[in-house]
Amino acid sequence: MSQTASFTIEKPKTNVQLLWNIIYGDIPKKVLLVTHNLKLFPFLASQPRTLAEICHAISIEQRPAETLLAVLASIELVQLKDGFYSLTSLAEDYLLESSPAYFGHVLNMFIAQDHMFSFENLQKTILSNSPQIYGHGELFKSHQEQADLARTFTYSMHSASMVSALVWPDVIDLSGHKLLLDIGGGSGAHAIGATLRWSNLQANILDLPLVCEVAQEFVTRYGLQNRIKTHTSDMWNDPFPEADLHFYGNIYHDWSPEKCRFLTRKSFESLESGGRIIIHEVLYNDLKTGPFMAAATDVGMLLWTEGQQYSGDELSVMLMEAGFTDVEVKSNFGYCSIVTGRKP
User: Fold this and answer.
1) CATH code of the domain made up of 17-94
2) Is residue 32 exposed (0-12), middle (13-18) or buried (19+ Cβ within 10 Å)?
3) Whole-model pTM over 0.85
4) Which of 84, 150, 167, 188 is the Cys-Cys partner for 215 at CB 3.0 to 4.6 Å?
5) CATH 3.30.9.10 fits domain 106-342
6) Long-range contacts of residues 284-292, Cβ cutoff 8 Å, at least 24 apart
7) Is there a contact between 335 and 294 (Cβ–Cβ < 8 Å)?
8) How many other CB atoms sit within 10 Å of the CB of residue 333?
9) How far apart are CA 16 and CA 327, in angstroms?
10) pLDDT tens-digit map of 62-112
11) pLDDT of 4 higher than 70
12) pLDDT value of residue 152
């Protein structure tokens, strides 16, 4: 005699693959960091290589090599054809030191700070609303006091900024401007990109003394010494030098809304009529429900600074409250956008 079950188990309505992707989502990053550290990318750049050649070159056994290469292939950094591994265009663009968009210094920073992105540190940050990087110290105060930290951070931010710096000057007409002030300009990546695109522009990179030293190295590397200068200054307490274009590249997300409004007002008061402000950031949508990159970067800001990621609407309001008109949000490249306004 058959029996009918007295209860049923409801099947999930969604696909569990997404949850597994989230759980294992950190694996590709770790594999990328290890591969970079083992210098596999430049080895593959010279010519396609067999598995045996790869094992010999980076001194690992076949099993871990196969696993590493499988992950790299799955995230489209290497490709396999006829038994030979080679780099994809994505890897060639960003993972070779010869590329102007080289991401290696960003990867070096993540390797050096890997322990900081732990579950424990993130939970401490969320519960305390206090950054954990540099042992609760102030990020930029630490850079001002420690030359090695300043140099490492500036190089990593150059890697992160350069590709966008070569693209955003194409989305806005700067033909009517003469002098760009790159406020908190770091390596000068954005000043370099803007002056390469617009021959009418000169630029001035404003930052801390140790950072300006690094910026001068990059300016010299690109042969722009006659068009880009550095200016040692405290953006909070010193007056801005003369310019008709103020640029903030990933600066606002380091600071609280109150401090961002201060910088916005300071730029408005410093600029003459017709002057322009440009804020470059990874922006949230107006509901602040995404995109993922903005939310993930916001987690980084929790760990590093007092700042946060903003939406295009939030930054637009800041500009309009300060008196700027013709405020626009323009998509740039990848996840980056610019918010711009003009002083009437």
Assistant:
1) 1.10.10.10
2) buried
3) yes
4) 188
5) no
6) 284/309, 284/310, 284/311, 284/312, 284/314, 285/311, 286/311, 286/312, 286/313, 291/335
7) yes
8) 14
9) 43
10) 999 999 999 999 999 999 999 999 999 999 999 999 999 999 999 999 998
11) no
12) 85
